Amino acid sequence: MTTAGAAAARDAAASEAGGASAFLTGHRRSGPGGGRRGRNRLRRADHAAGWAFVSPAVFLIALFGLVPVVWSLVLSLQQTDLTSPGTWSGGANYRRMVHDPVFWQAARQTLYYSVLFVPITMALALPIAVLLNQKVRGMLFYRMAVFVPLVTSTVATGVIFSWLYNPQFGVINAALSKVGLPQQGFFQSSSEALPSVVGMTVWGWLGFAVIIYLSALQHVPRELMEAAALDGCGRVRAFWRIELPLLAPASTFLLVWLTINALQLFDEVYVTTKGGPLHASTVLVYYLYQQAFVDFDGGYAAAIGAVLFVVILIVTVVQLWLSRRSSPYEVN
Amino acid sequence: MRTRSRLAGRGSGDRLPIIAAASALVVVTACSGGSGAGSGAGSSSHGTVIVWHGYTDVEATTFTQLGREWNQAHPEQKVNVTFAGGNDDALKKTLASFVSGKSPGVAYEFGSSITTLAARNQTQDLSSLVKNTPSFNWNDFFPATRQAATAPDGKIYGIPALVDNLSLVYNKRLFDAAGVSYPTPTWTWTDFQNAARTLTNPAKHQFGWAYVNDGSEDTVWRFIALLWQAGGDLLTPDNKKAAFDSPAGVAAMRLLHDMSVTDHSVYLDTGDGQYQNLFSSGKIAMLWTGPWDLSGIDKKISYGTEFLPGKITHATIAGPDNYMMFNKDDRATAWAFLQWLDSPEVHLRFATATGDLPLRQSETRLPGYREFLKRYPGDKVFVDNLAKNVTKSRPNIPAYPKISQAIGLAVQSVLLGKAQPEAALKQAREQVDQILAGA
Structure pTM? Predict the structure, then answer.
């Protein structure tokens, strides 16, 4: 994920505890009522001005966002090497996908990765955020320490983890042998490569999830906590009964955001295992990359991208729908 | 994540990844196509040929210097030597330049790119130039370089740019410490396997040999050398069927299996190149590698180079790269420049400055060759290999990258002990036959 994206998400989350989620779910808090007629006229003028202000952005997003998406859908119906004119092949790429065992393996592994990565990241982030929400001397240092992995480049992370995970010379195996535990293969083992990638990406993403939770925690109204304390509610109980429910929008946001990123896993695999050994860590986007830029089979790669697009769309909609139903604090 | 992700397309979470970026590129370049053709022609109207290269460090400075020298001597036939990003991406960039209409006059290309590029109109067939210029002395180039410059139809599309090959590089101190005598030019596989076993010491985390086990071409070409040494070949002579599922193929896979799975004498590199550091730290006794690794070896390590061990032959494999031409208008100037660049004297100067191997046999007979060997004593074995042990080359066919992937998986599964040699070869053979039938 880009740092710009992280910043945007941070801003969105920081704007208000529910802000990010409201933005995602389309909920809007109605403002104080005003003269209806006056507002209508105002609105029309506002609309024109608003569209004028956003039109450069809309144009750029359409050009660099929508056009490529549509283009790739078109490409998925062709046989093309991406640089010479393709030939139309209808649904051939999609039919091929159905019978491609490596595609299904990549799909299974993408799912496996997401199912591990998202819950682990969120489960670790919450307690850390609670700890970082205390008033302790030097807290800024701890907060920065948690956030640093996020701003470390993936390439550097990959190199470091390749050494840490090295079966013969790595620190982790050395530590394991000190306490008498068996040696692991990590990136060199076809059964451990993907879990090892999970470990590395959780480390890289934890800071992001912590920041989201931390900002949400800091926006829990102080009056609520004071009222609870006055009513004789203990600190632990207040966390479970007040803070945790109020974190629901932040959790929703993280769930959606991390899932999308998990389904699009690429960089970490590219800089460490290259999808191996024996395809053991080949995830969908890495497979797509191989098809497009190693085998120059652009049509097939575009078809994989289109399927992934639909999957992400469905997963996101379902997640938002579920969390909207279950969050008591979001319904007006 | 964050620098790479922009390139690689792991975007801010709301866009179709790589393809989006690729199509955006196509859109943008297509939009500028009209003017691109104009300025493409413009570059030749200035009379200057654009020469793309991906050299870095001393290779880059030397190459740029040669370009300057040429321009001073030939003000009417100028070249513009331009760094176009790493050589790894040369093929992608060249293909993208075809879309934009701004192709370079000359570009450095990997040998493996030749069949992809030969299918394009922009790529210049150089056969007539080469054959009608006796002074270019085509047969003087080492055979491997000529094979790599020639497409399966016999047409020449490349001018040799660089050649290397695999030799045995060993750490003398580890051999002394283990009481193993140094490798000889007549070493057999058995000698090699025994030495690797003796040089392996689990207590010290020390390995006899290292093998790049990422399933890429790096994994595959060492296996091909083994296959050739055992008298086998990758494909049938007509390139229509797999031929590696043979007694020679089994012998080669068996050696890998026995060394990796039985003896545990092989460090399996995941493709991050750590074997280089480990060799420099005295943790690995032998490498099969090329001259490019020599400069990275720690100065404290006393190493020797030798021919690869053999079974029937001591065959090794070369990875030659080419300069290719993409503009019809530029041909005369580009051809004159490349002739000069690849002339024995000029190329030997380039080799002496960079440690790259000579391209022509006549370079080794020039007086300057002694200076080259004095500077790069380790290179002698590699140059002798070019004359003696590089007799075959990988098939120059469009399906090769896919064939390589199938074999890479087979080698990987054997090295990891996930498959027996026979089974791995059989599966790879079926895949390769299928690839060749579909092509």
Answer: 0.79
